[in-house]
Amino acid sequence: MISQPIEMRQVLALAHEDLACYAMALWPRFELASHHSLIISQLETTESGKQSRLAICIPPRHGKSLITSAIFPAWYLGRHPDRHVIFASYGQELSDDFGRRVRNFVADPLHQAIFPDCRLSDDSAAAIDSAQPVAEHILPWVAAGRLRVGVRICL
After folding, report:
1. What pLDDT, in 10s, does the model give residues 11-39?
2. Residue 69 CB contacts under 8 Å (≥ 6 apart), including other chains
3. Does the residue 21 lie in any domain?
4. Per the domain annotation, does 1 fall within a domain?
5. pLDDT digit string (tens) for 108-154?
6. C-alpha to C-alpha distance for 73 and 76, rounded to whole angstroms
7. What's the predicted TM-score (pTM) here?
8. I need a surface site. Which of 14, 54, 112, 140 has the fewest CB within 10 A?
């Protein structure tokens, strides 16, 4: 195995442990505002199991969807590759869009360097089909009676 420079190893380690560092690594245009820090702090508390429910209410166009529905699920699945995430939204298209974003983050070589145990399922590169998972652990929707796995996070 080729040794990485110490700086890169440190960045990978920080991104593994800290959601804000992960966000800045995978989304270079991400600017950490004070309200983002608060959201990220609460999401990390939820990920750690210290709280079981979280509602985030802020106006549109403040980064809420990017953080909570794209970056956080990818980071969460990286830290817990054996768990599942569900997206629930008012419409199938929005849920599928979030699933695609997460899939793209998980497929990114940087994500795979941060979380080497988190991989996409073989069939996840195909177009989204609402009856099939986006990736092995990203379920884009749940219809009555269709859920056959345990879920830790519902967005």
Report:
1. 899 999 999 999 999 998 999 999 999 99
2. 87, 98, 101, 102, 155
3. yes
4. no
5. 999 999 999 988 776 555 333 343 444 444 544 443 344 445 556 66
6. 5
7. 0.79
8. 54
